[in-house]
Amino acid sequence: MIPSVLPTYTRAPLAFEKGEGSWLTATDGTRYLDLGAGIAVNALGHANPDLVAALTEQAGKLWHVSNLYQIPQQQRLADALVNATFADTVFFTNSGTEALELAVKMARKYWYDRGEADRFEIVTFEGAFHGRSTAAIAAAGSEKMTKGFGPLMPGFRQVKWGDADALGAAIGSQTAAVLVEPIQGEGGIRAMPDAELRALRGRCDESGALLIFDEVQCGMGRTGRLFAHEWAGVTPDIMMVAKGIGGGFPLGAVLATENAASGMVAGTHGSTYGGNPLGCAVGAKVMEIVANPAFLAEVNRKAALFRQGLEGLVAAHPKVFEAVRGQGLMLGLKCVPAPVDVVKASYAEHLLTVPAADNVLRLLPALNIPDADLAEAVARLDRAATALETRS
Questions:
Q1: Residue among 93, 9, 73 at smallest CA distance from 285
Q2: I want to staple 287 with a disulfide (CB 3.0 to 4.6 A). Which of 80, 162, 258, 270 is the partner?
Q3: What is the pLDDT of residues 184-219, one digit of tens each?
Q4: Which of 265, 264, 217 is nearest to 238 (CA)?
């Protein structure tokens, strides 16, 4: 008999009833150190008092009115994002997947309005993850996500990660946009080098194609800059944001230049819940905290400290860990065994981590995690690795 919750997840035998900072308490009272942060969502930890206060204050006033009316909280968050980024305008969604859907529509409408309706193709990269809607799985193109869900939405062309020649050949007269994660999350914490991002910006400028960055996982301070592309000194035309922007509240956004968004006029897109007062009140507080240069400097300091500890684990456990990759507090440990084995060994040490492709273990702690908790995380990973070595 099928369970009441659709069985589309392989869930760990754990359930939590309380969270505080970087710690979660299970229903049996056991405390776990959380290095997953809800897959990079809880950017400021669990039950962050500033976010709780922002949500509680708004909840006592107004929850939902729909986008039929002006929403001051939405305007405040949009202004903060525009003032801090390349963007001229913002559309709010409930998730990264919804942000992908709008980014695709926006790019195609841009060319349609210019009399080039046949310029609809979007170039994407092998190993990408942009969500699980029909457009998102077509964009990623992997058999794991697309098998059984055909026919796929047409108009996407995948190229091999890091293959400049293939990318050059893929961008042509039908290319509406190029879509890329500056750092692939699900793909295994694979960062596109700054030089390649700059070259990609140049190729798009030459061809006229729009450049779309998916910063759903790598954005909102995760790499030590507000957005990961800032390290390369380039800007996109359109950018997808979600996860950390709501600090745990479901919230996403599409940021765009005035030029890229020029085709999106009244009636071309909408959302019942997107940009509601609750989500935007929390998002505005997250932006207030995370966009502060002093906060981002602390993220970079903590990241250097954490990376040093992880490099020590690689040296101490070469049969378990091969290398550290990533940037800021979006780090990965390339594993020798399957990463799920390390995840399970970490459960025994009351530590939560996240597996990814390319045999990588993702480490995505809260951006404000205390130094002591980082040291404790390294110690628990050390014990988990020792246990795996003993078994082998």
A1: 73
A2: 80
A3: 999 999 999 999 999 999 999 999 999 999 999 999
A4: 264
SS (H, E, C) 143-154: HHHHCCCCCCCC
* pLDDT category of residue 391 using cuts at 50, 70 and 90: confident
160 and 255 housed in the same domain: yes
Supply 83's token pair: 């003032």
**Torsions phi, psi of 362, nearest 5?**
-85, 140
Question: 316-352 burial string, b = 16+ CB within 10 Å, else e?
Answer: ebeebbeebbbbbbbbbbbbbbebebbbbbbbebebb
Helices 371-391 and 293-316, packing angle to 10 deg: 20
Size of the chain, expressed as the number of residues it contains: 392
CATH number for the domain harbouring residue 153:
3.40.640.10
User: Is the same domain home to 262 and 363?
Assistant: no
Contact (CB, 8 A) for 298 and 224: no
For residue 5, being part of any structural domain is answered with: no
Q: pLDDT tens, 18-29?
A: 999 999 999 999
Note whether 262 and 307 are same-domain residues.
Answer: no
pLDDT at position 90: 98
Claim to verify: residue 166 and residue 241 sit in the same structural domain: yes
Distance CA 31, CA 165 (A): 50
Query: Per the structure block, which two tokens stand in for 322?
Result: 């091969």
Full-model pTM: 0.97
**382: how many CB neighbours lie within 10 A of its CB?**
17
